[in-house]
């Protein structure tokens, strides 16, 4: 008598388990493995493809809050055809974006600018500072309500005046928790690098009226050296991670600092046991990926003015340490990762995917491409669940209006991770200008949407 195959043995073993136990097992598996399980036998197909299981998977991987906010963005047609399994598949296989320029109404608008900050706090965009035409560095704060991102055809900007930090560009402004912004450093009108730390408290006077109250944050005598064009992100709800930038005398920095806000605010310089760390740079990005204990650094300009496209991971589990993501650099793989760039944006979108947009190369040629760094695929590769790094990067197609070639713009995602907002930056100059690489400051606003085709 022939012995049963491994798949038959698996089926016989699982056949003795109830549905709740099998569901618990499936929730430990990645997407591909769950789909493969559904093909094991007809009996398990209905369980592995059930809506209840895929709702649990969506909430497991993206968080219940994100899923609920995403559901609020669905159109009536999308709701009629909605399926959690289809949603998860479309997010996993994301390949396209759409873009539209937002119309601004009202009598006042932010000036065109670059190297400013743009954050989304609750349902509001918050814009601060930046450089503008004439070499001025701005100290203004603007807010605009976006609410349900799908239904906002226009923006109305409001100028906010209360306790402003001094004018600067190349600063960092990081959302901590739900209602606080931490602003650090930057470069002022005199070209001086700064290392002051500010907190911006969001005050809700009504559902459609807010204020931003800026005040210096007392951090004690120990702080990072002055810098601008550094990268920063929030770690959890009470820490801000800062790396690199341009320090005194134009020197690129490679140090890593953490601002701990869990008690009395204080800065700590982070060292690593193996001394492995990203090289000094400026104009790069740091993106925190919730649920992974990891921040992702990408690109920037090195101390030899070379432009980079390397990826580094800062892992806060155990001893905090940097680790470089080694990719296959064989010629056939070079077109599967973004070219080197500085002054780009990196935003965490739905499905723990980091969306890279724009920037410029070593010749200061600006870019208009969109790339996805797929963090779940990256983690599977690191865990040995994939044989190679293929699929970690993917270039996305853009449908509709393009936000054009730009660098040093501001960008942030809405709370669902489905929509990206872009404002300002340096863009190509007017056609009548004789210079090949002429520049101008931009003041347009755009909304970019992940195309899910639900």
TrEMBL record:
Looking at the Swiss-Prot or TrEMBL record, what is one Pfam family this protein matches?
A: Kelch_KLHDC2_KLHL20_DRC7
Q: Key word Transit peptide present in the record?
A: no
Which keywords has UniProt assigned to this entry? Kelch repeat
Q: Where is the F-box domain?
A: 11-57
Entry keyword annotation includes Chloroplast? no
PROSITE patterns reported for this sequence: FBOX
Q: Which PANTHER family would you find in this protein's record?
A: BACTERIOOPSIN TRANSCRIPTIONAL ACTIVATOR
Write the protein's name.
F-box domain-containing protein
Native species of this protein? Rhynchospora tenuis
């Amino acid at each position: 008598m022939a012995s049963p195959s491994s798949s038959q043995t698996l089926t016989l073993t699982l056949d003795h388990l109830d549905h709740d136990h099998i569901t618990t097992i499936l929730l430990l598996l990645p997407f591909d493995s769950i789909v493969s399980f559904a093909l094991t036998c007809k009996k398990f197909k209905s369980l592995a493809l059930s809506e209840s299981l895929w709702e649990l998977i969506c909430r497991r991987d993206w968080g219940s809050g994100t899923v609920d906010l995403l559901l609020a963005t669905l159109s009536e047609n999308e709701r009629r055809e909605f399926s959690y399994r289809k949603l998860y598949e479309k997010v996993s296989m994301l390949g396209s974006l759409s873009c539209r320029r937002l119309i601004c109404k009202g009598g006042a608008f932010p000036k065109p600018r670059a190297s400013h900050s743009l954050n989304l706090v609750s349902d509001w965009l918050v814009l601060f500072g930046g450089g503008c035409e004439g070499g001025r560095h701005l100290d203004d704060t603007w807010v605009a309500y976006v609410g349900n991102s799908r239904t906002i055809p226009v923006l109305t900007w409001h100028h906010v005046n209360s306790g402003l930090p001094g004018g600067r560009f190349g600063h960092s402004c990081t959302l901590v928790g739900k209602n606080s912004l931490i602003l650090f450093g930057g470069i002022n009108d005199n070209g001086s690098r700064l290392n002051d730390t500010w907190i911006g408290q969001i005050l809700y006077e009504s559902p459609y009226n807010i204020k931003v109250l800026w005040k210096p944050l007392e951090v004690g005598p120990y702080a990072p050296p002055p810098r601008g064009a550094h990268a920063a992100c929030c770690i959890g709800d009470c820490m801000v991670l800062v790396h690199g930038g341009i320090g005194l005398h134009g020197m690129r920095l490679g140090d890593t600092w953490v601002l701990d806000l869990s008690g009395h605010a204080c800065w700590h310089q982070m060292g690593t046991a193996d001394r492995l760390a990203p090289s000094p740079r400026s104009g790069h990005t740091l993106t925190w990926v919730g649920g992974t204990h990891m921040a992702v650094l990408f690109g920037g300009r090195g101390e030899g003015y070379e432009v980079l496209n390397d990826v580094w991971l800062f892992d806060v589990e155990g001893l905090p340490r940097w680790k470089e993501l080694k990719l296959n650099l064989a010629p056939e793989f070079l077109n599967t990762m973004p070219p080197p760039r500085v002054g780009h944006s990196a935003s965490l979108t739905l499905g723990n995917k980091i969306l890279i947009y724009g920037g410029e190369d070593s010749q200061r040629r600006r870019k208009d491409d969109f790339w996805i760094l797929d963090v779940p695929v990256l983690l599977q590769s690191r865990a040995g669940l994939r044989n190679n790094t293929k699929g970690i990067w993917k270039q996305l197609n853009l449908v509709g209006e393009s936000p054009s070639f730009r660098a040093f713009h501001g960008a942030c995602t809405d709370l669902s991770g489905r929509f990206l907002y872009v404002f300002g930056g340096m863009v190509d100059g007017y056609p009548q200008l004789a210079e090949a690489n002429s520049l101008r400051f931009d003041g347009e606003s755009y909304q970019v949407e992940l195309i899910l085709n639900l």
